[in-house]
Amino acid sequence: xxxxxxxxxxxxxxxxxxxxxxxxxxxxxxxxxxxxxxxxxxxxxxxxxxxxxxxxxxxxxxxxxxxxxxxxxxxxxxxxxxxxxxxxxxxxxxxxxxxxxxxxxxxxxxxxxxxxxxxxxxxxxxxxxxxxxxxxxxxxxxxxxxxxxxxxxxxxxxxxxxxxxxxxxxxxxxxxxxxxxxxxxxxxxxxxxxxxxxxxxxxxxxxxxxxxxxxxxxxxxxxxxxxxxxxxxxxxxxxxxxxxxxxxxxxxxxxxxxxxxxxxxxxxxxxxxxxxxxxxxxxxxxxxxxxxxxxxxxxxxxxxxxxxxxxxxxxxxxxxxxxxxxxxxxxxxxxxxxxxxxxxxxxxxxxxxxxxxxxxxxxxxxxxxxxxxxx
Amino acid sequence: xxxxxxxxxxxxxxxxxxxxxxxxxxxxxxxxxxxxxxxxxxxxxxxxxxxxxxxxxxxxxxxxxxxxxxxxxxxxxxxxxxxxxxxxxxxxxxxxxxxxxxxxxxxxxxxxxxxxxxxxxxxxxxxxxxxxxxxxxxxxxxxxxxxxxxxxxxxxxxxxxxxxxxxxxxxxxxxxxxxxxxxxxxxxxxxxxxxxxxxxxxxxxxxxxxxxxxxxxxxxxxxxxxxxxxxxxxxxxxxxxxxxxxxxxxxxxxxxxxxxxxxxxxxxxxxxxxxxxxxxxxxxxxxxxxxxxxxxxxxxxxxxxxxxxxxxxxxxxxxxxxxxxxxxxxxxxxxxxxxxxxxxxxxxxxxxxxxxxxxxxxxxxxx
Lengths: 375, 367
Description:
The structure holds two protein chains of two kinds. By secondary structure, chain A is of the alpha/beta class. Chain A has helices at 2-16, 19-39, 58-68, 85-90, 104-109, 125-153, 155-158, 179-209, 211-217, 222-251, 260-284, 288-304, 317-323, 327-341, 345-374, and strands spanning 47-53, 73-76, 96-100, 115-121, 163-171. Chain A has a four-stranded mixed beta sheet. In chain A, helix 8 runs antiparallel to helix 14 and helix 11 (260-284) runs antiparallel to helix 14. Chain B is α/β, with parallel strands linked by helices. In chain B, strands 2-1-3-4 form a four-stranded mixed beta sheet. Strand 5 (163-171) of chain A pairs parallel with strand 4 (115-123) of chain B.
């Protein structure tokens, strides 16, 4: 035990004496939290829209006002002539163009069902779909109000139309703040980087400069070496996580309704998987650069297949099966449920079992490989 | 520029690269992996959203409403329940994303007052999906309401989608990946190779030789410029052939702008190497300085226009922001220099800034 303790002390000293490393480990994640907390709002707004009004009537101006009064769109006043509309989209000056035809107001009055044309820049499929949705929503509201006015004048028509209005409410996050949903994701990514990447780099660095062999000829066993290489980073990971959580609570006011000991337990099982992966990666590569590339490939795959940005149930079925062995998937789920819903072990036991099985498997395999490679 | 002192440096660097086939393989496989995940697994549309319905009304009117939801491709009704108090446990056990509660007076209000409200509760833990679910439901009910009008809808709306008519997300993502990977790999490789020489002490040996600082920079830059550029071409061709990402503009322009972008990436790597001394830190720093801003703040996925104002300003000094406009403009829209020159100018300015800063700091450091 004493030997391990010295190894840990040495490792921590090595990491902490480098000022730049400290910056990367502690300051950068805070900046990330801050930037991501504000940058990633999945609500889409301030999109440039070009409205070509070939009618110029009171009704068409009312419609234009509806577009300029939302935060979704910014109205652009480029001169419109029938053939030129597309060129504004081509130059990227607007991503949406709405064409109101001549006699729009008159046709609307006489029930001639005028055509409104929408041109949409479809490059960013996600943004475009949302923008089109907003656009349709405004148009539908416009139609509803038009009908309303008509009914006021002709009540006998009114009986034929019935409106259904959803009254929406979001539980656990009533204002639907994206931050509440980003922070658990960011915390798990930071934790993965610290534990997986730094562990693999620390081992490979010793191999690169040849000190690992020196270490192996001393009476220290390979198990003790592994303990000495993993415990410091697990420790740093925990500190990092607490700092990030404190920051989230104090700055972004994210509620943590679940129990902290349960969180610590689940985080420990998660770290088991990432540390195991770190050791595993170190047995596959020879240089720090390779270790970095390898860890990075794992990290990106984990993030994309974790449900952080994209819900898992949208993925093709065969990909959904792959996500079952992704530790990040479980940990992000755990953090979200525990922070916002206050879920306890009675609900999160499935995640605990999954993480424990993945962790034990990877850790055992990695240790065996490490043992084989060093002896 | 290229003289007899630089060439051996370039050759030496190429030998380093060749000796490490594992890194090379990863460098080419990683982009493929990302492209596959993005191309096949990532889909922003929510479909088959799991919902629960609590019908307290149980009349033909409410059943008609449920039928509409059942027919929609967006929703998948997983359960029906009878008491609103059970909603909580549905969310706690993560069975559904939204619950729809049809009040007991639904049919009466629907007919009598023309305005009937129904309750929609979403699980806000995933704020993004919850917003989408609300939008879908809103649109669905609006359409249903309007379709009940005699004489049809007052206005007919026809929309046409340009540049990516099938809304294929890979067409948008693959050019983005080129921008992301180039800056990352360029900065990473450059900073790592210079700090490696520092770590092993060979940097000092090089510097006491008659080689001048700029020759060291050029000698280090050329091999990685070539490497990054081949990776770029590899991704572009693969995306073009496998994922059928269109190429409406001219390859020539794209490749020229690519080279300039890679220069910027190398400059960032050089800059990092002047600040740090070990490979480990250099790598962490390169990742943090390039990956995060290029993914989050450049418009790679999230549009810049929707960000808060201060972040929009920050996004302007990120090279990827401008390169994304250029590469997407050329590939998806067929833009030429006439349309994209503002982005080209901005990218050049940012690039020059980084290059000058890096060279200046590097020289200073050597003295």
